[in-house]
Amino acid sequence: MIKKMGCHWHLRQLMAAKGMFQTSDLIPPLAERGVQLSREQVFRLVTQTPQRLSVDTLAALCDILGCGVGDLLEVVVVNEEVRKIGTGPAAPSAPQVRRTTIRRPGTP
């Protein structure tokens, strides 16, 4: 059994607590800290949980919002137990063997 992990991204809530209600509000403070992101990238960063995030961007966000990494990103267990397919004693049985007849073209 393995644990399936996920995370909750709290960027939007932390921005609202600082009075930042538009995604574009992040562009100038990020640029001041050397992080150059397009409007589209910032929009995705605010509205979706990022799958990849540079440490520089994470540090800049924490500095801008006056928070720690744990305030911004909450790690959670999505599913307590996930069984790997095809392993362990509960693995599905082998498929049934069927006899096959090969016919050559022109023979009945």
Which key terms come to mind for this protein?
108 residues, alpha+beta, two-stranded antiparallel ribbon, 5 helices, elongated
Would you kindly provide a brief summary of this structure?
By secondary structure, the protein is α+β, with helices and mostly antiparallel strands.
| Low-confidence segments | none
Structure classification: alpha+beta
Number of strands: 2
Query: How many angstroms separate the termini?
Result: 52 Å
Order of helices and strands: EHHHHHE
Average pLDDT over all residues: 87
Determine and state the CATH class.
Mainly Alpha
Which of globular, elongated, flat, extended, rod-shaped describes the shape? Answer: elongated
> Strand order across the biggest sheet?
1-2
Level-2 CATH architecture: Orthogonal Bundle
Task: Identify the CATH homologous superfamily.
Answer: lambda repressor-like DNA-binding domains
Give me the CATH fold name. 434 Repressor (Amino-terminal Domain)
Biggest sheet statistics: 2 strands, antiparallel
How many helix segments? Answer: 5
Domains (count) = 1
Percent of residues in beta strands: 15-25%
Instruction: Calculate Rg over CA atoms.
Output: 25 Å
Helix content: 25-40%
What is the strand and helix layout of this fold?
Elements: E1 2-9, H1 11-17, H2 27-32, H3 39-47, H4 55-65, H5 69-72, E2 73-82
Antiparallel strand pairs: 1-2
